[in-house]
Amino acid sequence: MKYTDNAINIITAKSYKGIGNAWLVKNLKGNEDVSTIVSLLNNKISEKTSIAEFKHLKEMFEKKLSDKFQDFCDGIVAMGDNDFPQYRGNVKDSEKPVFLYYKGDINLLRIENKNISVIGLLSPDEDIEERERNVVSEFVKNGATIVSGLALGCDSISHKEALDRNGKTVAILPSPLYNIMPATNKGLAFQIVEEGGLLITEYGNDFKNGLELSSRYKERDRLQALFCETIVLSASYAQNSAERWKLFGEKLDSGARLAMEYAKKYNIPRAVMYDKNLDDCNPMFDLNRDLIKEQKEITVIDQINISEIVNKIMDNSSKIKKLNTVQGNLFH
What's the number of CA atoms in the CB half-sphere (13 Å) around residue 229? Predict the structure, then answer.
């Protein structure tokens, strides 16, 4: 398993009560020595620590890696590491990733790579599945790596179509790599890695309860927005779809809504599949309709313009990358 001393220091620091991503991003650049980290921690935490205690926790974590992760994880990257991926968009410190566990090709998250997230609801109908496959196929043909969340339904369709077209795909998990969720997609996860793709997660342990799992899904949704140039919504119910269509007692909302909200917040370009002649009365497109009303300039992919719009999205992504590179060079 590949990891730096810096990565283990970052993870150990986060294990202290009261230490979150925002504190880590604000106080550490990466590659600080243990004495510096301990000194900074003691300015924040109520129960003071010591170099000896920090090193003990660090050794315990490395032993856990050796005992539990060896067969499931290729490595860990953290802020300050040369291969730690650069997120896209404008992100506040508390929502910036600080470390990732991975299996597969971590270089697929490099800023130079053309990553497109394609997400949606858990139970799409056959028409949505066919249309999503066409969209993903067109992106892969144009050199995109497909990012999604390994969930059932639209996420699985995205990953499978990318693989069927000999493309690369990245799956972002709400669970540790030794406990793939959902379990029914373990085979797909293994296939993604075997065919040159990537699995990533922020978690090295199992969730304790349903509330924590729900929080992890939300955090997974933010990474779907952070690691792409454009996020594409295949189809999704809206938060009030059950009430809107008088389907009382049913929960129709999906995590795709949160991912699209994160993308808006981070200023990541958004696109939706939608054909007004076909989808106007389909509740599975409620969120797509809402987003079109909310953001007039959102990119709409209908069945006729798939190739044209995908080319436009990819061209715009390249222009944004070049602009970000120029701006980055000006400030370094």
Answer: 27
Read out DSSP for 25-58? HHH--S---HHHHHHHHHTT-SS---HHHHHHHH
Q: Which amino acid is at 278?
A: L
Which of the following CATH numbers is that of domain 106-330: 1.25.40.10, 3.40.50.450, 3.30.1950.10, 3.40.50.300?
3.40.50.450
pTM above 0.70, yes or no: yes
Q: From the centroid of its chain, how far is CA 64?
A: 25
Residues of the chain with CATH 3.40.50.450: 106-330
Alpha-carbon gap, residue 294 to 271, rounded angstroms? 12
Q: What would the pLDDT profile of 168-208 be if each residue is shown by its tens digit? A: 999 999 999 999 999 999 999 999 999 999 999 999 998 88
CB contact set of 325 (below 8 Å; sequence gap of 6+)? none
The continuous run of DSSP H or E covering 131 comes out as: helix 126-141
Which parts of 183-305 fold into alpha helices (H)? 186-194, 210-226, 241-244, 256-266, 276-279, 286-294
Amino acid at 152: L
